[in-house]
Amino acid sequence: MKDFLSRSKNIRRKVLVVDDSEVNRRLLGVIVSRNYDVLYAANGREALDILQSQPGTISLVLLDLVMPVMDGYTFMEQFLGHAVQYGKAPVIVLTANKEAEVEALHRGAVDFIPKPYDFPEVILARIERSITLEEDSTIIRRNERDPLTMLYSRNFFMEYVRQHDLYNRDTPMDAAVLTLTRFHMIQDIYGRAFIRQVLKVISEEIKHFLPLEQGLACRGEFGTFLLYLQHRDDYSTICRNIARSVCEHTGNTRFNIHFGVYKNVSKSMDPEQRFEKAALLCNDHKNTYKTGCFYYNNDAHEKEMFNERLIMMLDDALRERQFHVYYQPKYQIQGETPVLHSAEALVRWMHPELGMISPGLFIPLFEENGLVLKLDRYVWTEAARQIRKWHDTFKKKIPVSVNVSRVDIYAPSLEKELLALLSANNLESGDLILEITESAYTADSNQIIETAKRLRSLGFRIEMDDFGTGYSSLNMLTSLPIDALKLDMSFIRKMLNSPRDLQLVRLILDIAKFLNIPAIAEGVEDEKQCQTLRQMGCELIQGYYFSKPVPPEDFENLIKKDIGMPL
């Protein structure tokens, strides 16, 4: 921006001199033309015609007040009230009447130049100052608002929050973050034009209730809005009204809104931090696909502090090998006897003070802030070493699937790192299976698909994990580079008690057959589930029915049993 402004100083701007006296016009023209291109008009009517013929190109108007046909006051009334028709430019009045100077300023003039014109340098300085102030304010206006919604842009919003606090110290305020759930999926399915319509509908609803709440609002990123509102006990009605309005305007009833609220904010806290706390609630409930309000409280604060502690402990935990890689077997069940086929690597955190920390706590946290890159590489390294060790010990290769997160996909060195890992352990690309969740595909399909294609060209096999939870379209499935579908365990757990879930499992197995790839059912816990899946054509299963995730030494007993070796 600074470079642009410095370059713009070299542009010769246009100044319009409006005066019925030709002598005065020429005299001003001689002075002004040193630095500006000058146009002339003998009265307000001529001036409006010139402005209308080239709207927005004139940077300043020097205006006499007493003129025939149309005087200066009438000109200002017409010009300043119709910026679309005439463009926008500051007006400096030319007068020897002190009372007229005050009246002109009240009517919209930005400055005055007294007659006679004795000091050319003062005149030029006033012109330059007025033009600069107008151009600066124009830049501010353009950046102050989001052009789509006309709500504040984020930077201006945060500054206005600070100013609001200065003048309203005793007014209790709430920081709220509104998010449209499944934003990326909606955009991928319906397109950018549709999502823009949705964002405009939400912004209009916000503007509708905002004056009543006496607050501020801005548009954030990816279907997010930030609101700073006078404190109230409940936001559920506002939340439902916005969701209902979106559904009515789009004809789609699957839109849901999350409203995270940090009530009675501490004004000693930086505004960015207040909204981070409100956003935390939306992130915690991002897999809750229904409209709802969530409030920041002591539990949320304790969770946030715990999460910060986990983040700070990660590097030490990796260095001290507190993370242990467990392996859960996958069995081929279509033969007469189940056969050990492969395994999935699952990480466990054994902390010396906190004990076992659930993966459900730290994995989503590390995925959110990018630290999962470090953890995934630790797991990949351990898994590759273990594959090599089992092969050397039992002369049997057990392929192991490892998680590849969305964060990993964006790493430019991903393929190089995986190939180096194979080379270091003398493995083939088929020995390390890469699991990518279905939600990752639907969140950023183009990037994921291109990366997956490159990985497959190198010989890696790709499994789509948690299939059935990410809302993939059938059309999208036909273009995805995958080698196996992995059924989410929630379907398996409910299928024997729910005809609907049983039909969904059958449908997913049929999709796998159509794509000519195997289906893997995880979460299989008993004989009946196993036999039902076998009869429906499922090829591979994993779950407690065969084994829970176990340390490498316990997994060796499963290998021995499979190859008929004494335990």
Features:
19 strands, eight-stranded mixed barrel, disordered N terminus, 567 residues, alpha/beta
Short description:
The protein is α/β, with parallel strands linked by helices and about 575 residues long.
Radius of gyration: 34 Å
| Number of DSSP E strands | 19
Beta-strand fraction estimate: 15-25%
Strand order of the largest sheet: 11-12-14-15-16-17-18-19
Structural class designation: alpha/beta
Low confidence ranges = 1-8
Average pLDDT reading = 87
Q: Give the overall shape, derived from the CA principal axes.
A: elongated
Alpha-carbon distance between the two ends: 72 Å
The helix count comes to 24
Helical content (DSSP H or I, runs of 4+): 40-55%
Main β-sheet: number of strands, strand sense, barrel status?
Answer: 8 strands, mixed, barrel
What does the model show?
The chain has about 575 residues and is α/β, with parallel strands linked by helices. Helices cover about 50% and strands about 20% of the residues. The protein contains 24 helices and 19 strands. An eight-stranded mixed β-barrel has the order 11-12-14-15-16-17-18-19, surrounded by four helices. It has a five-stranded parallel sheet with strand order 2-1-3-4-5, sandwiched between helices. Helix 12 links the parallel strand 9 and strand 10. The longest helix has 25 residues. The chain is elongated and about 115 Å long. The N and C termini lie far apart (about 70 Å). The N terminus is likely disordered.
